[in-house]
Amino acid sequence: MYYQPASAEEVREVLALARQQNKRVKVVGGGHSPSDIACTDGFMIHMGKMNRVLQVDTQKKQVTVEAGILLAELHPQLDRHGLALPNLGAVSDVTAAGVIGSGTHNTGIRHGILATQVVALTLMTADGTVLECSASSHPELFQAARVHLGCLGVVLTVTLQCVRQFHLQETSFPSTLKEVLDNLDSHLKRSEYFRFLWFPHSENVSVIYQDHTNKDAYIRDSSALTDGAELMTDFPSQPPSSSGNWFWDYAVGFYLLEFLLWMSTFLPCLVGWINRFFFWLLFNRKKESSDVSHKIFTYECRFKQHVQDWAIPREKTKEALLELKSTLEAQPQVMAHYPVEVRFTRGDDILLSPCFQRDSCYMNIIMYRPYGKDVPRLDYWLAYETIMKKFGGRPHWAKAHNCTRKDFEKMYPAFPKFCAIREKLDPTGMFLNSYLEKVFY
């Protein structure tokens, strides 16, 4: 059964019906998680009708929203108040509750995953009770519920910490894997939102810097959040600019690439050549663009794809990536599409955050599905997962992985604490599904 409640009371009615009929319940967001985390054979709740902005506090720079609002719907409303979220993932067609519950992240070693921006939330538990959670109200539950996996209850509202609206300048330029790994600390210090793309079967890397176009203004404004200093006036307007165009982005970067990737399903030896050719064609020169922050953070994911994304301790970045490279070189029959995207995130105290108690490096691998066709990937997947586990990795909750409870007990020091909270709030397992049973049993 599929439900679209428009209020907390209607959510309560769905949960009451589920208890009566002994049905399980899953809440679905924007549907961008390439895993089974939101699947169910019971009741499915879509929160799309609960998508209002409830309150904007311009003094505290906080916004309270209903859980079903898409970030794409939130951005223009924050724009009108001169506010912005300090960090975003690549996609904004995701809900506020879903993006925090799955541990969504971007990059920036001074920034946490998106759930660290949450200052309060309300949660309806299996018995219909509504709990308000924050650092001062039900703090242990708050520590768990910011990455909730959809298994603690139904998130009704979320309060997010914002910053003043800002513009970003994005600069990308070519480099080599050796240069980037040998100078990783320097890159991390040089750019606030630094990431890089490695092209498997080559030494090629595209370095991407994203930074405030008015850094001094941002720094002074950020300090005002903690020391009570007088807020600055609005940032000067920045005209958007971009070095991209339709021919290179679509005719070449999408249509030609998809055709060549499809050809490589018959001739796998083409993959390495494709990776090197497209680096030379599209990434072998400096590019710059600038715009309001949410338009730079997000981008269009054009291809159907299989992905994995694990977080390892930040200091293991070089060792792990070089081992992945060596593994691919030792097994030439294993093909890997470009790019391997490498991002960095600050540690936090959220119980099931992949960045729990450690600064982390996220290493995202990808295999495209040209024209919807599946490509051989299992050998690549197994090699990658083996390396990630070796270096203390933790998988992204919204991406595919083969981990079980035994794995998570080793990965997460606070795993028993989260389990105890979940069992107390949902003793009958109303919010479980087959995916979550593998996690908790």
Care to give the gist of this entry?
The chain is α+β, with helices and mostly antiparallel strands and 441 residues long. It has helices at 8-21, 71-80, 96-101, 139-145, 177-182, 184-190, 215-227, 246-264, 270-283, 293-297, 317-330, 378-390, 405-411, 415-425, 434-440, and strands at residues 2-3, 25-28, 43-46, 53-57, 62-66, 83-84, 118-124, 130-134, 154-161, 163-164, 167-176, 195-198, 204-212, 287-292, 305-313, 340-345, 360-368, 394-395. Strand 7 (118-124) and strand 8 form a beta hairpin.
Number of helices: 15
Would you report the number of β strands? Answer: 18
Shape: globular
* Structural class designation: alpha+beta
Strand order of the largest sheet: 14-11-13-12-16-17-15-18
What oligomeric state do the depicted chains represent? single chain
Rounded to the nearest angstrom, the distance between the terminal CA atoms is 26 Å
Percentage beta strand: 15-25%
What do you see in this structure?
The protein is 35% helix and 22% strand. The protein is built from 15 helices and 18 strands. It has helices spanning 8-21, 71-80, 96-101, 139-145, 177-182, 184-190, 215-227, 246-264, 270-283, 293-297, 317-330, 378-390, 405-411, 415-425, 434-440, and strands at residues 2-3, 25-28, 43-46, 53-57, 62-66, 83-84, 118-124, 130-134, 154-161, 163-164, 167-176, 195-198, 204-212, 287-292, 305-313, 340-345, 360-368, 394-395. The strands form 4 sheets. Strands 14-11-13-12-16-17-15-18 form an 8-stranded antiparallel sheet, with helices on both faces. Strands 4-5-9-7-8 form a 5-stranded antiparallel sheet. A hairpin with a 5-residue loop joins strand 7 and strand 8. Helix 8 (246-264) packs antiparallel against helix 9 and helix 11 packs antiparallel against helix 12. It starts with a strand and ends with a helix.
